[in-house]
Design a protein that fits this description.
endopeptidase fold (from Nostoc punctiforme), 3 helices, 30% helix, globular, 174 residues
């Protein structure tokens, strides 16, 4: 009887944990999508919304903010993360699921809310980060939500070929 009660209790804990992950994941997707259309004020990494992203990483206006945008969205959705404005910092264990053509955790199929990193050869590192939105589109493309993108700069939905995906990290299921 005691074992049965433990099993029931354990099942409720597992179900509750998965439900909480689903709610936070849905909230993250909603927050990320709600920011599409944000534009910089003077095309110099500024403006009310851009500055709130930067503020989440304790930075003033004027800094590149793709990573700060990711920090802000995850914090708004209730994730307990260390905010970072440094794009490479997102792609570390235990969150890393794909890196430079290698499946790290047998989870390489990107899902909305995953972070996608882009390698910049001139910097010899990941130089830009955004959120996966849909994968795949027509088998060879995916869509993402990226900040500090475009001219004028802002938050945009972007369609990219799969080969541009250098790294993936999954924070929402931790």
């Amino acid at each position: 009887m005691r074992i049965f009660i433990y099993l029931i209790f354990y099942a409720f804990i597992i179900c509750d944990a998965h439900a909480q992950i689903d709610v936070k994941h849905h909230k993250l997707d909603s927050i990320v999508l709600s920011q599409v259309g944000v534009k910089e004020l003077t095309n110099h990494n500024d403006g009310k919304e851009v500055e709130k992203y930067l503020c989440s990483c304790h930075l003033p206006k004027g800094y590149e903010y793709c990573s700060a945008f990711c920090s802000w969205c995850l914090l708004q959705a209730g994730y307990h993360i260390k905010p970072t404005a440094w794009a490479p910092a997102w792609f570390v264990h235990p969150y890393l699921i794909y890196y430079n053509g290698h499946d790290v955790k047998n989870k390489t199929y990107p899902i909305s809310g995953d972070l996608v990193g882009y390698y910049y050869p001139n910097q010899k590192r990941i130089g830009h980060v955004g959120f996966i939105l849909n994968y795949p589109l027509n088998g060879q493309y995916y869509s993402s939500i990226e900040a500090n993108y475009g001219n004028p700069g802002g938050v945009f939905k972007v369609i990219r070929p799969k080969w541009m995906m250098f790294a993936l990290a999954r924070y929402w299921d931790q």
